[in-house]
Amino acid sequence: MKNHIYISKQKSYNLAEIEKTLRLFFEQLNIDLLLSDKHKIIIKPNMLGAHHPDKAVTTHPIILEAVIRILKDFNKDIVVGDSPGGIIKAKQIWNILGYTDICKKYNVELIEFGKSGIVEINSISSNNQAIKFIIDKSVIDCDGIINLPKMKTHSMMLYTGAVKNLYGTIPGLYKSELHKMFPSPNQFTDVLSELYNIIHNKIILNIMDGIIGMDGEGPSAGKPAPFELLMVSQKASSLDYIASKMMGFEIKNLAYLQNALTIDEIDINEDKISGAISIDKEWQDYVIPNVNIKAVNFRNKFLNHIPKIFKKLFKKYFTFYPNFLPSCKLCEVCVKSCPVQALKLSKDKDKIVLNKDKCINCLCCHEMCPYSAINIKKNFISKMIFKDN
Ligand code: SF4
Ligand code: SF4
After folding, report:
1. Which of 325, 334, 345 has most ligand 1 atoms within 8 Å of its beta carbon, as the pocket-test mutant?
2. Which residue ranges make up each domain of the chain?
3. Contact at 8 Å (CB) between 361 and 376?
4. Does the 4-283 domain belong in CATH 3.40.50.11440?
5. Confidence (pLDDT) at 130
6. 364: CA distance to ligand 2 center in Å?
7. Eight-state DSSP code of residue 309
8. pTM of the predicted model, to two decimals?
9. Per-residue pLDDT tens digits for 315-335
């Protein structure tokens, strides 16, 4: 059935159970047919940074292992790849995640996107923004992608899942460059939407790791949250629509997902799952209990309530800046990840100093900090306006 979202309750990362569930879903999806004309397949997990799997920042290795075990039955050329954000070496991330051992065990190639070729694609967004994309060549050349996103909140875009996971197909620090060129959430919406437009036809399947997801200040400084969900869909947009709804988000606040649904020609009714998306009855009104989306919703609500002219005139009062916590280890990953060089180590080498005039509020530092030592500072005025947060 087209655009059916397959959902299963999974309480833990048990390889045998996850593999069994996925095999069942794949059978219903006619996986033989989906893979029949595909030879080279890229598995794209979320490898955002050097965080232990228990931190719920990245796709859990057991999900990757289960998918590899199933795909091995089909005798395909399988490659696992991603480009982590920031400056941390991919090998370091693979080791912490356990991906190195898994790929070795099953004789699967593990690659860092961008290291063996790139493709430049120029695009014009629906808002007439010219965007130059640099995308890993193997992604463009492969026969299909199996997308393994993690279900999380996102401080800039509110929610991150299957569509946002594709941003990792852009190699290395060019990701930060795009943040610099398109700093506001509205502009960045165009970047994510256009990228999806370029890649969406490559996607064979999306398998969402929502067993332990993340709420609070995601995508890396939030809290691991037991959503207990494993979800599979052919379309990244419809999967994200359902997953974000279950977390308590409203599609009207997720512009990049609205655009992705349009690209996939999926029609939804905001209050009711309808049109091209189908879902088993038991899940139709399901909302995950106690998901903390306040922290990310607050920023979005605040920025949307302030007229543009005020934002410009009183930038320092209406803007959210990174805030460095005592847990900072002075590793300088944030300094090197900042696309506009707004951060530096203090003269005494005892703290990170922010230049607010340079900061474009892209939150790359917040996303990249391996120690979750950056939160987002709410100023006095914003706290007064939205007391409930
Ligand atoms: S805030 Fe995080 S990334 Fe930046 S120096 Fe401290 S520990 Fe490193
Ligand atoms: S300091 Fe952080 S939020 Fe500001 S521009 Fe640099 S990376 Fe972005």
Report:
1. 334
2. 4-283, 294-385
3. no
4. yes
5. 96
6. 6
7. H
8. 0.90
9. 555 567 899 999 999 999 999
